[in-house]
C-alpha cells in the first residue's frame, strides 16, 4: 500500500535539502544573534538535573526554532509552557526526562506544560475527549469512554492487526464540575508510531466512520451552547504543530491538572510518575526505529450516514443527508448552499476530491441565476484547498466555475504542510487535468 495517492506531491516535497537549509539558517540565526539569550535561544545547563544523554535544554520564543533544534538531537522533543494568561508561550527543546524533572520541581499550580506534536514528527494515536456536563446531564462519561476503548481495541485489531490490552491505553483525566475531559494515549505493541499527526487524523476519521449509527450516537453530545450535537472526540487536534497538555499540567490560572483516570490508575498503579509521563508523550518512544504506520487514503472510505439525532436544517421530507470524513468541509459547504442541503457526497480518495450533490439550492454561476429544475454540485479539491461549482443542466455541461479558496480552518490537514512550496510542477498540472477530465466525464454521463 502506498501513501502517495492520498497526499499527492505535497509530503513528497519535504526534501532533505530544503530541510537542511532551514536547519542551517535557524542554527546560524541563533548563533549569530546578539539578542539576550532569553529572547531567542538559550542553552540552559541544569546542574541538578539527572543525566540523560545530553543535559542541555534550549528555550525559544519561536516554536519553529525549538522544532528545528530537536531535529538535530534524536532524543530531544519539543515542549511549550504558558507564561501568561493570554496564552503566550515559550518553547523548549530537550530530553523528555529532563523536562519531566523540570515540571516535577514546579509547584502544582505552576505547571502549564504542553508537548508540541511537530508536523513531521512520528507520533502515537491519541484522542482529546470532552463534553459539557450541564448540557448533557446524566450522561455517564466514564462508561462511554470505556465503550469507546473497546471499540477502538477491536478496530485496531481489525485494521492494523495489533492486539491491544486495556492497559495499553493511557487514560488521563482533567474533568471539572462543568466539563468532562479526558486524553487517551494509545501505546501500540512494539512502541510503533504513526508516520505523523496527519496519518493519525485520517485513522481516527476512518475509525469513526466504521462505527454503527448506534455507536456513533453513543459518543455524540450537545455542544457548549446546547444547540447542536457533536462527537465528544475533538477532531481539530490532528493539525499542524498541535500543543497537547502534559501529564500533571493544568492550563494557566486553572486548577485542574491532567492525572491518571480511575480506570488507568487501577491498571497502572505500579508505574512511577516519570514512567507515566513518558508513556503519555505523543511523540516519544523507546524504540525510535520501529516501522512507522502509514494510513493510505487510497482505501475505499464509506460515507457516514448522518446521525438522526442531529438536527437537520431543512424541513423537506427526510432528506438523504450525508456526511463525509471531513466534517469541517461538510459544514462549510452546507453553509454556502442554505437553504438547500447536501443530498449525497462522493469521496474519491485517489483524487482527494469531495463531490457534493446539492438539492434545494440551484444557483448556477454559468447562467447567474437559479435553474428551474436541474441541480448543481460543488466539487472540493482537498489537495489544492479549492472548491468550484458545476451543473447538471444540459446547457451547462462544460461549465466549471472559477476556483474559490477553501477557508484554512476547514482543512487542518493542509495546514500541516502550509509552509511548503505550492503546486507548480508539470506533474501537478497533469494531475489537475486528469481530475477535471474525470469530473467532466461524470457530469456528461450523469
Ligand atoms: Zn447551470
UniProtKB/TrEMBL annotation:
EC number: 2.7.7.102, 2.7.7.7
Biological process (GO), any one: error-prone translesion synthesis
Pfam short name (any one): Herpes_UL52
Enzyme class: transferase
Catalytic reaction list: ssDNA + n NTP = ssDNA/pppN(pN)n-1 hybrid + (n-1) diphosphate; DNA(n) + a 2'-deoxyribonucleoside 5'-triphosphate = DNA(n+1) + diphosphate
One Gene Ontology MF term: DNA-directed DNA polymerase activity
Record's GO cellular component terms: mitochondrial matrix; nucleus
Keywords associated with the record: DNA-directed DNA polymerase, Nucleotidyltransferase, Transferase
Alphabetized InterPro entries for the sequence: PRIMPOL
Superkingdom of the source species: Eukaryota
Family stated for the protein in its record: Belongs to the eukaryotic-type primase small subunit family.
PANTHER family: DNA-DIRECTED PRIMASE / POLYMERASE PROTEIN, DNA-DIRECTED PRIMASE_POLYMERASE PROTEIN
Name assigned to this protein: DNA-directed primase/polymerase protein
Amino acid at each position: 500500500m502506498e501513501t502517495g495517492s492520498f497526499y499527492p506531491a505535497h509530503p513528497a516535497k519535504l526534501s532533505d535539502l530544503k530541510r537542511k537549509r532551514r536547519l542551517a539558517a535557524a542554527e546560524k540565526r541563533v548563533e549569530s544573534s546578539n539578542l539576550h539569550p532569553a529572547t531567542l535561544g538559550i542553552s540552559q545547563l541544569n546542574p541538578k538535573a539527572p543525566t540523560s544523554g545530553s543535559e542541555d535544554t534550549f528555550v525559544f520564543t519561536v516554536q519553529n526554532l525549538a522544532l528545528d533544534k530537536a531535529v538535530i538531537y534524536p532524543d530531544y522533543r519539543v515542549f511549550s509552557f504558558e507564561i501568561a494568561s493570554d496564552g503566550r508561550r515559550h518553547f523548549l527543546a530537550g530530553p523528555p526526562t529532563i523536562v519531566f524533572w523540570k515540571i516535577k520541581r514546579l509547584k502544582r499550580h505552576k505547571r502549564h506544560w504542553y508537548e508540541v506534536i511537530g508536523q513531521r514528527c512520528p507520533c502515537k494515536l491519541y484522542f482529546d475527549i470532552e463534553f459539557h456536563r450541564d448540557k448533557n446531564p446524566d450522561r455517564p462519561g466514564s462508561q462511554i469512554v470505556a465503550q469507546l476503548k473497546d471499540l477502538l481495541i477491536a478496530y485496531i485489531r481489525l485494521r492494523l492487526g495489533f492486539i491491544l490490552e486495556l492497559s495499553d491505553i493511557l487514560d488521563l483525566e482533567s474533568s471539572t464540575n462543568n466539563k468532562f475531559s479526558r486524553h487517551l494515549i494509545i501505546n501500540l505493541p512494539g512502541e510503533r508510531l504513526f508516520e505523523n499527526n496527519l496519518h493519525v487524523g485520517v485513522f481516527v476519521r476512518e475509525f469513526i466512520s466504521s462505527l454503527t449509527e448506534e455507536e456513533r450516537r453513543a459518543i455524540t453530545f450537545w455542544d457548549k451552547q446546547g444547540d447542536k450535537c457533536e462527537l465528544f472526540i475533538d477532531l481539530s487536534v490532528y493539525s499542524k504543530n498541535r500543543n497537547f497538555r502534559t501529564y500533571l499540567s493544568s492550563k494557566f490560572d486553572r486548577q485542574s491538572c491532567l492525572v491518571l483516570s480511575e480506570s488507568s490508575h487501577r491498571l497502572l498503579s505500579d508505574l512511577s510518575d516519570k514512567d507515566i509521563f513518558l508513556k503519555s508523550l505523543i511523540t516519544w518512544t523507546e524504540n525510535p526505529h520501529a516501522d512507522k504506520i502509514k494510513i493510505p487514503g487510497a482505501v475505499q472510505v464509506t460515507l457516514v450516514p448522518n446521525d438522526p439525532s442531529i438536527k437537520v436544517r431543512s424541513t423537506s421530507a427526510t432528506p438523504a443527508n450525508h456526511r463525509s470524513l471531513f466534517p469541517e468541509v461538510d459544514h462549510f459547504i452546507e453553509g454556502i448552499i442554505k437553504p438547500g442541503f447536501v443530498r449525497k457526497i462522493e469521496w474519491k480518495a485517489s483524487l482527494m476530491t469531495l463531490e457534493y450533490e446539492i438539492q434545494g439550492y440551484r444557483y448556477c454561476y454559468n447562467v447567474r441565476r437559479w435553474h428551474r429544475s436541474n441541480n448543481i454540485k460543488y466539487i472540493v479539491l482537498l489537495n489544492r484547498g479549492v472548491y468550484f461549482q458545476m451543473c447538471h443542466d444540459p446547457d451547462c455541461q462544460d461549465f466549471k466555475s472559477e476556483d474559490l479558496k477553501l477557508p484554512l480552518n476547514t482543512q487542518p490537514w493542509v495546514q500541516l504542510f502550509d509552509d511548503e512550496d505550492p503546486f507548480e510542477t508539470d506533474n501537478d498540472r497533469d494531475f489537475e487535468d486528469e481530475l477535471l477530465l474525470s469530473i467532466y466525464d461524470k457530469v456528461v454521463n450523469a
